Structures are given as structure tokens and as C-alpha cells.
Amino acid sequence: MVKPERLTYIGLRDVDDGEKKILKDLGIKAFSMHHVDKYGIGKVVEMALDAVNPNRDRPIHLSFDVDALDPSVAPSTGTPVRGGLSFREGHYICEHLCETGLLVAADIVEVNPALEDEESAFRTVQVACSLARCCLGESLL
């Protein structure tokens, strides 16, 4: 079982009071979109790694909820909230974690093609597949 202090969230928005309490009570480090806007995605990823793996000596599991992305990027998800991560910011997270050499597992979740029209569903699936490929070492360039 993963200890809560070894978890971190990036790109949070629309967090209710109960969720905020859980994050605080369990000591889970969380970075909102405000942090991404203020510091940039590169710095936020480094701060997240510093919080959960300061010595960079432990394996990393990435669970990427596509609802962290802005709905303009990935509309076919259960909780689409405007103001999310951009296409590039999402890919940066996956690329950077892969580059650490510590990424041993990843899952891309919250893709739900049944919620949108065919074009939106296809776009969301394409983004999820692209994120998975980045986790495996594929670069956008």
C-alpha cells in the first residue's frame, strides 16, 4: 500500500471542502492549476518529485486522470472542468517522469468515449494513447 505522503496531485481545480480536508489530513501534496500557472509545469513536476521522492531513488507509478487536462484537449471524461492542463503540459509530465528512469508503471484513466460525440471521444482516446507512448519514451519531437 502506498503511504499518503508518497502521493502528489498536479493540476487540481474544482476541489470541494471534503477533498481539501482529506488532502490536508493525510498530508498529500497537491499542486493546483494556480501553481502550474505561477511556476510553470517544469517547476511543478520538480516540486512534486521533491515532495515524494527527494533522493530520486524510488520507483514511480503515474496515474494520469485525463480529466486533469482541459476539456478542449480531452472532452470525453467524467469530470470535465475548464482551466485544466494543456496538451503540452500533460505530455511534459509523462516525458519528464520517463526521463528520470524511475517510472516503472503508469495508467491513463477517466477516458470515457460513451460521454461525448464520436469526434470528441476519438480526440480523447488519441490524447490518452499519446500520453501512454510518452510514458514509454516517445517524445513529441
Automatic annotation (TrEMBL):
Signal peptide (UniProt feature, chain positions): none
Pfam families per the UniProt record, alphabetical: Arginase (PF00491)
Keyword Hydrolase: yes
Gene3D superfamilies membership: Ureohydrolase domain
GO MF term list: arginase activity; manganese ion binding
GO CC annotations on file: cytosol; nucleus
Keyword vocabulary terms for this entry: Hydrolase, Manganese, Metal-binding
Family: Belongs to the arginase family.
Name of the featured protein: Arginase
Upper taxonomic lineage: Eukaryota, Fungi, Fungi incertae sedis, Mucoromycota, Mucoromycotina
Gene name in the database record: ABSGL_05334.1 scaffold 6959
